Amino acid sequence: MGAPAASLPFRVEADAILLHLRLTPKGGRDAFDGIASGADGKCVLQARVRAVPEDGLANAALISLLAKALGVRKSVVELVAGTASRQKTIRISGDPAVILPALERLCDL
Questions:
Q1: 3-state secondary structure string, the chain?
Q2: In total, how many domains does the chain have?
Q3: pLDDT digits (tens, 9 = 90+) for 38-80
Q4: Other C-beta atoms within 10 Å of 38: how many?
Q5: Within its chain, how far is the Cα of 66 from the centroid?
Q6: CA separation (Å) from 44 to 54, 73, 108?
Q7: Which domain holds residue 102?
Q8: Quick check: 6 pLDDT over 70?
Q9: Beta-ladder partners of 108
Q10: What is the CATH number of the domain that holds 21?
Q11: Is the dihedral of CA 42, 46, 89, 92 positive or negative?
Q12: How does residue 2 score in pLDDT terms, banded at 50, 70 and 90?
């Protein structure tokens, strides 16, 4: 990990990783668009999904997209903040040493 911690969109904990995202629903495709600075100055991973932001569909699509990209089960990916916001915090449970390499590739580090 060559980037300074302040420029990373995630924080490693003992048994999980907290990931900060900015989600664009109805984005035309399901994809990640790299790292950007959020409105609050925090570093975020940008994501887009085709799903609409109604009845939790966009959040569910984000969890599926993230689980697939990281090679983990959807049940270990939990939305912990930002249910009705574009700015979201996701908790990915598990051994950070296993999850981190895939997350770094996703963030293009």
A1: CCCCHHHCCEEECCCEEEEEEEEECCCCCCEEEEEEECCCCCEEEEEECCCCCCCCHHHHHHHHHHHHHHCCCHHHEEEEECCCCCEEEEEEECCHHHHHHHHHHHCCC
A2: 1
A3: 667 789 999 999 999 999 999 999 999 999 999 999 999 999 9
A4: 15
A5: 6
A6: 23, 22, 13
A7: 5-106
A8: no
A9: none
A10: 3.30.1200.10
A11: negative
A12: very low
Q: How far is CA 102 from the centre of its chain?
A: 12
Q: Is the sign of the CA dihedral 94, 98, 100, 106 positive or negative?
A: negative
The candidate with the shortest Cα–Cα distance to 29, out of 45, 46, 42, 43, is: 46
76 phi, psi to nearest 5 deg? -95, 0
Whether residue 98 contacts residue 71, with contact meaning beta carbons closer than 8 Å, is answered with no
**What letters, b where the CB count within 10 A reaches 16 and e where it falls short, cover 75-99?**
eebebeebeeebebbbbbbeebeeb
Give the span between the Cα atoms of 63 and 78, in whole angstroms.
7
